[in-house]
Amino acid sequence: MTEGATPWGTIYVSPASGSGLWRRVRIQVYPPGTTRAERRMLHFAHTWPIGGAITGLMLTVALSGELPPGADLAAGLLAYAAGFWLAARLTRSLRRRVRTLTVASDYLYGEPREYGDARLLHAVTARLDDLEERRRASQVNPVQYEAEWGDIYDAIPSSTADHIRG
User: Fold this and answer.
1) CB of 86 within 8 A of CB of 55?
2) What is the pLDDT of residue 20?
3) What is the average per-residue pLDDT within 51-69?
4) Does residue 110 have a pLDDT over 60?
5) Helix, strand, coil share of the chain (percent; to 5)
6) How far apart are the first and last CA of the chain?
7) Which residues have C-beta within 8 Å of that of residue 9, sequence separation ≥ 6?
């Protein structure tokens, strides 16, 4: 399990789909000072629904014939559920502090409409892109990087967590 591409958080973009051509952009900014281990735990929690399903299925197949009928399936389901429990337990306090901003867009009759604070999303994304570019070019030291990351984190209201405001 990796920790993600950037120390500050992640951006998820759902592809445009359907006849109305809608998409959703969600940015999650971790609290400044989030460690590599904490980022790995958050990544694990995010990827477990798919990764855990594959793991549970592989375990069920591996145990088929070795256990009484139905026990192999129970073992696979138990492993899947245990992963959710572990992810929730490891990330409980950190998930509460992650700042999330979501903007949904749709295009109906050639007119774009956005739901959520699109200006804030664009401003935060631009600042994070610039900060990340300067970090990769070694133009900011770790203290400057974390200070700017903190300013961006503070710009996102904590009340926007995981919902769309219109």
Assistant:
1) no
2) 58
3) 92
4) yes
5) 55, 15, 30
6) 35
7) 27, 28, 29, 30, 98, 128
- Inter-residue contact 64 to 73 (CB < 8 Å): no
CB 101, CB 121: distance < 8 Å: yes
Helices (H), 64-141: 71-97, 118-136
CA distance 164 to 161: 9
Residue of 94, 102, 97, 100 lying closest to 42 (CA atoms): 94
The single residue listed with the structure tokens 């009484």 is 68
* C-alpha to C-alpha distance for 161 and 109, rounded to whole angstroms: 30
Q: How far is CA 132 from CA 5, 45, 58, 87, in A?
A: 10, 24, 38, 27
DSSP line for 44-62: HHHHHHHHHHHHHHHHHHH
